[in-house]
Amino acid sequence: MPLPIRKALACCVFCASVQLAAAQSGARHASFEIVTRMDIDVDGAPNAYGPPGKKTLDYLSNAHYRARPKGEIVGYLTEEDRDAPVVQGPHDPFPGYYVSTTDYVDRSRTNPKDPLRYVDATKINYVVLGDEARRKGARVGDFVAVYSRRHRRAVFGIVGDSGNPSGAEGSLHLLQELGYPFKSGKTGSVERKDIVIRFFPRSNPERLFFHSQAELDAVAEKMGLSRDFIAAGASKK
């Protein structure tokens, strides 16, 4: 699809999401909170994984289910009927790297081998859907507000992926926005239960996709979602 048409479609989707937010702004959204530790998730970033010799954001072992070397590959796309990774082409963001995937996708990009179909962990605040949040009604695509007790910062985000029953993972961009000095998926984690995630179930029923954090923030604000954790000593970022 030509670039001008893609940009026009993206603009239309964003406008539609703002209109949806405006329509929902009068309704009070139910929410619940989970307190957790948090590992860094880089899935969806086009430079997350690649062959030996490439400067990647994470180790290949972390692309397997629960980081088990013999576990199912869940961090990047593989060719049908075999474990060979799908490799980005010359016109993709990181040629030669693997196509890293997330459950939250841009449905306007129908080719599963398109690395831009997936939510980029370096650009968007997202959390991983765990079993507890799922039981309480959260789904991929829902909005969240996330707070760091340590840094007293609160930001909006989205439920961007699944695959970890604990749900104790957040995108690299999220943790950076919360004030943690992480540079990649290789650099550490939040070991204490310093993270509070406020889930807003059914807040994005159409699973509208956001291409920037600014778009996501604008819609969350328009919907009247709260990232106010003042009772816990938070300050908005």
- pLDDT < 50 runs, ≥5 residues: 22-26
Listing every helix as H and every strand as E from the N terminus to the C terminus, the arrangement reads: HEEHEEEHEHE
> Helix/strand-derived class?
alpha/beta
Distance between the termini: 37 Å
The largest sheet is: 7 strands, mixed
- What share of the residues lie within helices? 10-25%
Q: How many separate helices? A: 4
Report the β-strand fraction as a percent range.
15-25%
Q: Determine Rg (CA atoms, Å).
A: 17 Å
Cα shape? globular
Count of strand segments: 7
Mean pLDDT: 88
Question: Please, could you describe this protein's structure?
Answer:
- There is one protein chain.
- Strands 1, 2, 3, 4, 5, 6 and 7 form a 7-stranded mixed sheet that branches.
- This protein is globular.
- It has 4 helices and 7 strands; from the N terminus they run αββαβββαβαβ.
- The protein is an alpha/beta fold and about 240 residues long.
- Strand 3 and strand 4 (about 155-160) form a beta hairpin.
SSE layout and pairing:
Elements: H1 3-24, E1 32-41, E2 126-129, H2 131-135, E3 143-148, E4 153-162, E5 169-171, H3 172-177, E6 189-200, H4 213-222, E7 235-236
Parallel strand pairs: 1-5, 2-4, 4-7
Antiparallel strand pairs: 1-6, 3-4, 3-6
Index terms:
237 residues; single chain; alpha/beta
Please give a quick description of this structure:
The protein is of the alpha/beta class.
